[in-house]
Model the fold of this input.
Amino acid sequence: MMSASTIRLRVVLGLLVAALLVMAGANSNSSYAAAGRPGIAASGQANPPGQTAPTAVPNNAPALAGCSAATGMTPATAAADADTNAAVGDTKIGVAIALSGAAKACGDSQRKGLLLAQDEINKAGGVDGKKLALLIQDTTSDKTQASTVFQNFIQQDKVLAILGPTLSSEAAAADPLAQAASIPVIGMSNTGNGITEIGDYIFRDSLSEADAIPNTVAVMKNKLNIKTVAIMYAQDDKFSSDGYGVFKTEFGKNGINILDTEVFNTADTVFDAYLTKIQGLSPAPDAIVVTSLLGAASKIINKAHDLGLNQQIIGGNGFNTPLLITLAGKNAEGAIFGGAWSCSSYTTANVTFINAYIVRWHQAPDQFSAQAYSALKILADAIHRAKSNTDSKVLRDALAATKDLVTPLGSFTFTAGRNAQQKTYIQTIKDGKFVLLDTK
Ligand code: 1QQ
Done:
């Protein structure tokens, strides 16, 4: 029989251990500067720099708020947002995003995701005591300007790494410059083919359309019983034309017949002729597939509705922003598309991100802000593990070694090819909100 004193001793010891654990938890939230070592999060995963231990998962209210239409989404003004401030000793990161032009909506979301992540990291003392400075430059959605921005980051600003550019078209032109200069790049929204094949300094945390679209097509076949389609894409945009290629291949594999293909340019604003031709098809296609950026996609959806075309609309990565609801309104209801992030994913990291984003920007985040936010956290974690904020070669290797990092995108690991590997969320728009499509 255990003596009274032994029991008392054990209780005291137990309380002591618990107190120590709590104190260890509190410590972990301070910056690397203070503790110099990562803390422990609920998942047992090390806290990346600047990420507070996840709060308890609240019920679904915040997430639902995160799924709403893009209320209050104010397009950024390029000039005002170009930030080149870096204090001596700061770790300089180049950010090449589209703050004007065809991809402006995505660039604005990326800027907001990055600034939120930067706030969190720097408020926690930065990475190993050094603040992250984001040198934000507007690529204007143009590949030549994107290359100029990269060149300036490499030759003038001597950045440690580059985040961006927004479009695959821009990346195909600019990324080789960074590869040649051995400057690591993380693409945050590049979903086109062959981006990371540009070289071993090129990474992306954005799921490629080559990975996402086969899942969308499987749903078209197995869940929606679609047998015939008309497909529309922008020939002068790499993401759009690569997306068309993937859809075409997958339709071939799944016995889905392409009745008509309509080719347009990103700057086009009038789609009557293309849609009237589709309306004249007999038999009519079961679905209209659109792989293009947001601007053209929303105009096509509105014009199809005006012409009385009521086919199922299927989209690509360009649909992954609630601004689609703002621009196409009720006409966007029922559109189906695949993506790499969902406001309906209730992981602690995602709900925490959605909460913080809504508090910071008074609006819902989207996939592009989640990928940008995650990209800076991935980069900060790699800088910490590289134990250097000057050596891009060591950083490249640390990035390649990123494994199971907790992010709003889920547990993140780069593939051997420096791509993202994630599940595809098949979403639709219902009552003005993004919701997961029940694919069972
Ligand atoms: C790409 C895309 C675009 C939709 C990003 C804005 O997926 O260019 O790769």
